[in-house]
Write a structure and sequence with these properties.
The protein has about 100 residues and is mainly alpha-helical. The protein has helices at about 10-25, 30-35, 40-75, 80-100.
Length: about 100
């Protein structure tokens, strides 16, 4: 230490800190901190992401339900004794509900 060099533990700590800084930079922590400094922008982003997520859920549920009903209708056409009656009742109920809209 008398010659002006750093102790070994200081060098190790500096290297660890540099790796941590690089990892935080890669993770985009600075962008998150900036986003939290602007609460209005954060609310707008969260609002629109919630709307988009809700729209996606609605469209996805509609598509899956339509496919399910199509499969049920095809099973009903096969005229299987027990299954076809049950499926026919479900399809009939759904069609009545759709006509009521």
């Amino acid at each position: 230490m008398a010659n002006g060099t750093r102790p070994e533990w200081v060098t190790v700590m500096i290297e660890k800190m540099e790796r941590t800084i690089e990892a935080l930079d890669k993770a985009g922590v600075a962008e998150w901190v900036e986003l939290f400094r602007q609460p209005r922008r954060l609310l707008v982003i969260n609002f629109f992401s919630g709307v988009a997520r809700g729209f996606g859920i609605a469209v996805g549920f509609t598509v899956v339900s339509a496919l399910f009903l199509m499969i049920l209708a095809r099973i009903a056409r096969l005229n299987l004794p027990v299954v076809s009656e049950f499926v026919a009742d479900i399809v009939r109920l759904v069609q009545l509900e759709l006509r009521g809209l």
